[in-house]
Amino acid sequence: MQEKGTISIHTENIFPIIKKFLYSDNEIFLRELVSNAVDATQKIKRLAQLGQYAGELGDTTVKVNFDKDKKTITVSDSGLGMTAEEIKKYINQIAFSGAAEFVEKFKEAKDANEIIGKFGLGFYSAFMVADKVEIQTLSYHDGAAPASWTCDGSTEFEIGPGTRTTRGTDVILYVNSESEEFLEKFKLQEILDKYAKFLPVPIQFGTKTESVEDGEDEEGKKKWKSVEVDNIINDTTPIWTKSPNELNDEDYLKFYKELYPFSEDPLFWIHLNVDYPFNLTGVLYFPKVKNEFELQRNKIKLFSRQVFITDEVKDIVPEFLMLLHGVIDSPDIPLNVSRSFLQADGNVKKINNYITKKVADKLSELFKKDRQAYEAKWNDIGLFVKYGMISEDKFYEKGKEFTLLKNTDGAFFTLNEYSDKVKAIQTDKNDQTIYLYATNVSKQDAFIQSANKKDYDVLVMDSPIDSHFIQHLEGKLEKTSLKRVDSDVAEKLIQKDDGYANLLTEEQSTKVKEVFEKAIANKTYSVEVESLSPEELPVTVTMDEFMRRMKDMAQTGGGGMSFYGSLPDSYKVAINGNHGVIDKILKAENEEEQAKLAKQAFDLALLAQGLLTGKDLTDFVKRSVGML
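The structure assignment produced for this chain is given below.
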């Protein structure tokens, strides 16, 4: 008996919306249809387990086929199947509250997941690529008759007798002219590899050629022959569905290579497995992050019941954990709602907090279990840990015990250990403990040596995030400041009550300042004459700590710091009035000789800072040779 009717969607705008607003994500149609087939298959298996279906399950493989000549794609399953009445119930009624709301809410939609899931449009995503869709189905119920359904992309459908003779459903897509790219084998394989690689039911896509052993030749060597076998594209039991005690290191490393074939082996990993108060499984890997800050992002894959959803997991995973790799699978994450709702969702917050805690616990465990091995990994994980310390207060509180600081001697210290190390000698007259740091050990060597002469310790802070980490530490550590070792002369970095007497008269100091200002002739450099140790350099060029730090933060994307990044560089030139070279300049025969000596001393200071380049460097070398 043939039957015609109208799909209950309350508007004729539904198909133009599907085709227009979801077009950029049109490959999702295959994910949705295959997922539906898997659901139907799992349900019949469950009914059989419960004794509510007594028939033979048979082969439950979901099959995807295409016919380029007929321009069709077919997804077939041996699942529950449907009666004609069930088709009316599940296919013909798209449940949403009013066409006007739908059109308004999604007229500028970019996220196909949101539209498809929220309004039950999984099946209807087929019309993103098809002019006509046909269903051939046979229900598992005893005595059920096969049924068919066809729709040409309008709101009209037709239900009639079907041709299927075995339990299950075929969904046949008649691909439109704009979507013929999906009639290529490599394209369909690519989509299946992306979305269905770990589905819990075998998915077959045609066949593939494999070499199998075929006896031995006369010399006793193995012979091989090529055979056609089913192309099963998925692993139905990926490691995150298993218990950790079923797995070994080789299993985790093998899975990592499946996900990221061209990556180095990870440092270590965390197996997530919780079922209360939310469901979450997965494996998170710690890659060798080093300084490739942006390149590492978007490497966590989000699944829902083994169906791949996205690799953009922001809001579900804490920001700093975006540097990790791996898989998260949870049916409790609302995938089909707006981001603002996602951020406020209770389960998402719990999952976010849980993952943060698990990561912190793992790092703490590694640190306590084998500190030496942990220190050896620090260059690879330091960036990640510091990022976490900055962005998550809860992580900071846990991370204080396993965050390390490294000094120029290559020694490592926890935050508490380092405070104890330097507090006595590096506390200034205002009772502030000063941590000195270098961002480029080789370029700042002269300043490091000057600090070391005073028994000051110098930290190495050379990662892309360290300018922000330094700022964060100052806000957290009590009575502690951090100064770059070349931000001032060693005498002034940590100011004590005792200082050096000025050997120059006021008149001599004024004269020295004038000589250097004339020799430098550049307003970028402000000259000051200071009373320093005779053992310090005659001239030191520095940039103010605050200004330098703001510029560093601006370069690495510090919020609100772009203003400082646009300011021209400015430097302080500290003249050591107590150095013999300054006395020599004052006693020079004439102003020309004074200027020549002052310029040479100034260029030496620039050379120590790595600021002497190009023609200025060439001229300096020529002058130096001339003085020999």
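Interim note for the steering committee: Residues 346-369 form the longest helix (24 residues). The domain at 239-365 is CATH 3.30.230.80 (Ribosomal Protein S5; domain 2).
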